[in-house]
């Protein structure tokens, strides 16, 4: 796997996650308190890598990109002090689980079929959301719920809507990723069956 | 033969390690799970890492926001004339100056009372206003915030600095800052803390007459975010016996009245800034009516012209002036 290319694409897509998601979010101008209902841009990269890469590097890539996403966008408000805290982990663990899901399912799908990539992106984002909310719920269960106001139902709803919307971003990103398969250093062995 | 033993053993260990290469990954996952459950006080070091990541991403984020803002501006209608905008700005600044003077006046009276009781005075806090570009409105974690392109290097202090429109309309408090950017928690975010405010009745008179007597008889209210972008809370109407003898009795809260921050938990430089305008009064018949306030509305614009947080291109940040060496 070409780690330099992954790093460059990761940088660009994490920037898109930060800057573009607020503009394409649905219902973002409300009272806040829940994540934006907007498509993910970086997660489809993890899914794409997971469709072609070796298992262990794929899982590490999911973990590292998820951690970077947590560090860039995983800030929470502490109600008592009205200050912020960055919680590293919910995204990283969720994205690692998403990468594992794709590794498990990739043998069952046709890699060159765009629908397969889009569906896997939605499933992966959904699983990442469930895992992230589970980790945050565990945090609340352990007693820090008062410090960081958190509604599991609202978080899960918003994140699952975002997962569905990821179908749109993944379809667009596939147009960029697909020609890059050789640059990534992946072996697209399905080509040998194509004339 | 004797030297073969350890070599085989090393080889075996390496083989074992290569057969279970996920140990490091499981370790990392366990560490992250542990970090996810630590209390906020122990996660300070993560904030520094987070700040570094955001600093690296800032140029790209700013470029994308600049491009998107250009696109959205192109799709909008013509802006109001420069003269009208200047007049509005001037009027708002003068009104703001008056209320600050009124607030200072009241505070000085308190200080005199303190002096009389031989209590030391605090030095007056100086304010440094800065015009700061807005990077964008975002929502992450459990709150929504406005990212500004100014950080600690420009004297922004989390908890001590506030963001305003034209220096007079309060947007919210700055809750986080790194070297080059900071985050503003809007007053109306669902998880923002409740605060007390004063309703200034004189601002609603047709001729705009403002007097110190009405300031003294201002109604106080406790406002909290409702979750749908508005603020609401109970109003405490002062009885005649509680109002200064020479002051007019405060009129009951009514739609259109301007609400200004008056809360000891906020920095002094934010006191008496405009919070918004009363758009609805509920439970009028009881002694403790409830008001609903639209934030960012300073009463100078039509309701549909009130700026939305996601359309702001720049704000004025009020920070405490740093003392010289």
What does this structure look like?
The complex is a heterodimer of chains A (195) and B (325). The mean pLDDT of chain A is 84. Chain A contains 8 helices and 2 strands, in the order H-H-H-H-E-E-H-H-H-H. Chain A has 195 residues and is mostly helical. Chain B has 325 residues and is of the alpha+beta class. Helices cover 31% and strands 26% of the residues of chain B. In chain B, the strands form 2 sheets. Chain B has a 6-stranded antiparallel β-barrel. Chain B has a 6-stranded antiparallel barrel with strand order 6-7-8-11-10-9. In chain B, a hairpin with a 4-residue loop joins strand 4 (169-177) and strand 5 (182-186). Chains A and B meet through helix 1, helix 2, helix 4, strand 1 and strand 2 of A and helix 2, helix 3, strand 1, strand 4 and strand 5 of B.
Secondary structure elements and their pairing?
The complex is a heterodimer of chains A (195) and B (325).
Chain A: H1 3-19, H2 21-24, H3 43-52, H4 55-73, E1 75-78, E2 83-86, H5 90-105, H6 114-144, H7 152-177, H8 181-184
Antiparallel strand pairs in A: 1-2
Chain B: H1 4-19, H2 23-36, H3 44-74, H4 82-116, E1 127-140, E2 143-148, E3 162-165, E4 169-177, E5 182-186, E6 195-200, H5 212-216, E7 219-225, E8 231-236, E9 258-261, E10 274-282, E11 290-295, E12 314-320
Antiparallel strand pairs in B: 1-2, 1-12, 2-5, 3-4, 3-12, 4-5, 6-7, 6-9, 7-8, 8-11, 9-10, 10-11
């Amino acid at each position: 796997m070409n780690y330099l290319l992954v790093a460059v694409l990761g940088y660009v897509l994490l920037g898109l996650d930060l800057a573009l998601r607020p503009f394409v979010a649905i219902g973002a101008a409300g009272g806040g308190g829940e994540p934006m209902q907007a498509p993910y841009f970086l997660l489809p990269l993890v899914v794409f890598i997971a469709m072609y890469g070796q298992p262990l590097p794929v899982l590490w890539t999911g973990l590292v990109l998820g951690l970077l996403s947590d560090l860039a966008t995983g800030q929470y408000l502490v109600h008592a002090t009205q200050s912020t805290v960055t919680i590293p982990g919910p995204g990283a663990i969720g994205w690692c689980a998403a990468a594992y899901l794709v590794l498990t399912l990739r043998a069952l799908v046709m890699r060159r079929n765009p629908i397969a990539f889009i569906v896997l992106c939605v499933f992966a984002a959904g699983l990442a959301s469930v895992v992230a909310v589970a980790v945050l719920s565990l945090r609340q269960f352990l007693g820090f719920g008062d410090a960081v106001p958190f509604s599991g139902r609202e978080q899960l709803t918003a994140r699952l809507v975002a997962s569905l919307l990821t179908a749109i971003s993944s379809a667009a990103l596939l147009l960029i990723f697909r020609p890059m398969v050789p640059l990534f250093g992946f072996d697209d062995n399905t080509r040998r069956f194509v004339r | 033969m004797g030297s073969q033993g350890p070599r085989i053993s090393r080889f075996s260990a390496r083989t074992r390690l290569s057969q279970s290469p996920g140990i490091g990954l499981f370790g990392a996952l366990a560490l992250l799970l542990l970090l996810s459950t630590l209390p906020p006080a122990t996660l300070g070091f993560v904030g520094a890492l987070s700040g570094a990541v955001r600093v690296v991403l800032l140029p790209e984020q700013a470029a994308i926001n600049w491009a998107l803002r250009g696109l959205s501006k192109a799709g909008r209608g013509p802006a109001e004339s420069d003269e009208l905008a200047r007049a509005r700005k001037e009027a708002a600044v003068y009104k703001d100056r008056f209320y600050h003077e009124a607030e200072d006046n009241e505070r000085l009276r308190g200080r005199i009372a303190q002096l009389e009781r031989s209590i030391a005075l605090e030095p007056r806090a100086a304010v440094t206003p800065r015009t700061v570009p807005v990077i964008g409105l975002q929502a992450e974690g459990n709150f929504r915030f406005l990212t500004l392109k100014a950080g600690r290097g420009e004297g922004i202090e989390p908890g001590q600095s506030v963001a305003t429109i034209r220096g007079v309309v309060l947007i919210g408090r700055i809750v986080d800052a790194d070297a080059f950017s900071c985050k503003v928690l809007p007053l109306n975010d669902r998880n923002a803390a409740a605060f007390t405010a004063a309703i200034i009745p004189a601002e609603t008179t047709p001729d705009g007459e403002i007097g110190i007597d009405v300031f003294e008889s201002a109604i106080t209210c406790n406002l909290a975010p409702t979750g749908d972008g508005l603020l609401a809370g109970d109003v405490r109407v002062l009885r005649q016996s509680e109002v200064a003898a020479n002051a007019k009795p405060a009129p009951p809260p009514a739609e259109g009245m301007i609400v200004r921050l008056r809360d000891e938990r906020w920095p002094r430089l934010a006191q008496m800034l405009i919070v918004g305008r009363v758009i609805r009064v509920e439970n009028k018949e009881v002694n403790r009516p409830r008001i609903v306030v639209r934030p960012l509305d300073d009463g100078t614009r039509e309701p549909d012209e009130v700026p939305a947080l996601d359309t702001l291109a720049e704000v004025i940040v009020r920070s405490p002036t740093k003392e010289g060496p």
